[in-house]
Amino acid sequence: MLDTLTKQLDDGAELTGEQVRDAIGNLTDDAITSVAKADFLTALANKGETTAEITVFASELRDMALPVPMDNETRGREILDVCGTGGDKLGTFNISTTVAIIAAAAGVTVAKHGNRAITSKSGSADVLAALGIPTELTPKQVATHLHDHQFAFLFAPGYHPAFKHIMPARKLCAERGQRTVFNFLGPLLNPARPTAQLIGVPKGELCEPIGRVLQSIGIRRGMVVNGRVGDDAMDELSTLGENTVAEFYQDRGFSISRDEPELFPLQPATLDDLKGGDAAENAAMIRAILSGDDRGPRRDAVLLNAGYALFVAAKTNSALEGWELAGSVIDDGTALRKLKELTSV
Rounded CA gap, 157 and 143, in Å? Predict the structure, then answer.
């Protein structure tokens, strides 16, 4: 079956929803060779994944994840995830992880779904562990942490058991220098099923298709962003250049914009100002930002992304208002208190 689908993709033909489901069945079957799986993923990438194909992949794989047993009160909240797909290779510090903590400090319930480093020195799991925040919670513990502390981290490998049969094929593709659909599926598979998401992608042209997938899988409020840094681009909103933003808010349609961050009171900065290090170094940077000791370009990058995250989570009426709220929870000590709370549970 998988070889037949690979041939179809090599001929340039799209997969139907049923064929994507068949492909997932084969990809998660340990009886199918890693080579056959890698050839399929390569053919799909070379054809170019459609929004419809990605939507079915995301829906089916999310349904296969371990569920989080939230109570009705927690499930009734606006639940935010904020993350980047990775892959920009710019080596910035963990901006979205810092934003997640600030959003929780501002009163938003945050279910952050992530992994260890893949394309950087420090992934979200790495830096959270270095900060002392639990990173290997069971589904029941995640539900409790979301209810009691408005923050929980879901370590992706622990929630997607079917992926163990896909990883060898992904590694084979990586050895070939071949990206796959899984390079940007991660943020779409949060088992906590957030209602609001801010996702950063490494290329501006990915904003619209990933945004439409988010809308198709039932996210109420979503934003997919990419920021320019000279000739490069980052999977965050950039303080250094133009940002591409695809967004939707329930029944308010879907829009795409490209804007410089001129409305925000940014300090002069370069990419070097945003560079990160290993998990311990990035954890120290995050502590300095949350404590208010670092008031330079790293703080600006966090406030910009936090501003949009708080807006997406319906905590504020605009990103600029979100910037101001994020700054205030740092300056009045709320952000640092939240960090201490999360490290003591």
Answer: 18
